[in-house]
Amino acid sequence: MLQCGLYELDITPPLGSEMPGYFNTRLADGIKEKLFTQAAYFEDGQNRRIVIISADGAQIPDEVNERVHPAVAKALEMDLAGVLTCATHIHTGGPLFTWADFCHTDTVYMDFLAQRMIDAAVLAQKEKRAVKIGFSRGYDDRLAHYRDFVMADGTYRTNPPIDAEKHPFGAIDPEVGVLRIDTETGEPYGVIVNYACHTDCVGGTEFSSDFPGAMRDTLRKLYGAAFMPVFVNGFFGNLNHVDFEQGTHRVEGYYRSMGRRLAAEASRAMETALLSADIDIGMACETITLPTREPDDALLAWADKIEQDAANQSVVERHYASEAKRIKALGVRKIPLVMQVLKLGDLLVFASPKEMYVEFQLMLKEKSPASRNFCIALANGPCGYVPIRELFQPGIYEARLNGSQLFEDAGYIMVDKLLELAGRL
Question: What is this structure's pTM?
Fold first, then answer.
């Protein structure tokens, strides 16, 4: 008999905290919605255990993961490979990384977040009960939009002007993955929703859980205050909420509309899920190391030019010029990446660090040995874009060296490793 426990804890930072996500310093002066970390704990009849911990934040820093993973494994008496942590990637959250002079890590908040994530997992295990679960798919091709374009002159551009002649290089993944969780007696207990889109729909200086929070609030109105909806973001690196072909959605409160629409599709899919308690659990995890890129001579020459004309350059250009010099001084490094696959019956959960491009999600779903799949980005590691080879191009924001330090084949190696791990299960 499968058992599951769900729990959430408030992780809202204090007002006055720096808010990472943009090329300017923002100090929080209000709260649109509280921020939460949520834990979903599963245990099968063979005493195999996994836990998925999702937190409202731009990322989960390595320092937090290195504390949370072993502490949770020890407290829950489970294999370290079964602990998955991930961030929703909101841009209106707490001070979780240092980025130039725009924002700075707050070690006090990181300690607080780490302890809250550990506590949520422990309390989720205490809440465990016999459950039935079922996977289903929803579909929405209007919430997320592809944001890398080929312009009429053959150049590439991220987030181009609305009225420019262009076409998107690729396509989104419209699948809304849903794992419905009911009690043994048939009462709705919770759901895990998996959808790929940047969570950057709010802006400003008030804490907000963005559209995942609005989705959670809507599902609770449908299924009751005790119902526990959990959001895990897909491979969203080159997706966002703005439609650069038809027009923008930069209107007040649009994130709430997104959340309601996502909740409606998740609810529709939930009602078609076939539930079962005869579920086995599996896990496979491996840390790989991949090299970083170095700035080439052309990039360094550009950086020199920008710095020589700094007074007439934008803050963004000055930042990337400075970063090119800094990264050159660091030299080639090896970055550890925790690759993980979890198994819940016939559902495979592919968990990868970084902000993977959606094409890698589509590759995994096509090649997966399972017909039911979740892909979770920003899992067990911090930010950083992982583009496809074809979009390492001038004009592509995610491919700029500071945002994407891994070399061009990194994403393909990461996908291959995930598929290898899946094969073991």
Answer: 0.96
pLDDT value of position 322: 82
Amino acid residing at 277: A
Token digits for 195?
């959808």
Residues 88 and 10 in one domain: yes
| 233 and 348 together in one domain | yes
Residues of the chain with pLDDT under 50: none
pLDDT at residue number 248: 67
Say how far apart CA 188 and CA 184 lie, in whole Å: 10
Q: What is the DSSP string of 329-340?
A: HH-S-EEEEEEE
77: left (phi over 0), alpha (psi -120 to 50) or beta: left
Segment (H or E) for 181: strand 175-183
Same domain, 225 and 326: no
| Amino acid letter, 243 | D
* Number of compact structural domains in the chain: 2
At residue 222, φ and ψ (nearest 5 deg) are -80, -40
Same domain, yes or no, for 201 and 85? yes
Q: 54, 37 in Cβ contact below 8 A?
A: yes
Helix (H) or strand (E) holding 213: helix 210-223
Q: Please report the DSSP string for 111-139 in residue order.
A: HHHHHHHHHHHHHHHHT-EEEEEEEEEEE
Q: What are the φ and ψ backbone dihedral angles of 299, each rounded to 5 degrees?
A: -65, -40
Residues 94 and 72 placed together within one structural domain of the fold: yes
Question: Strand 372-376 and strand 385-386: pairing?
Answer: unpaired
- β-strand pairing of 239-240 with 145-146: antiparallel
Pairing of the two strands 3-10 and 36-43? antiparallel
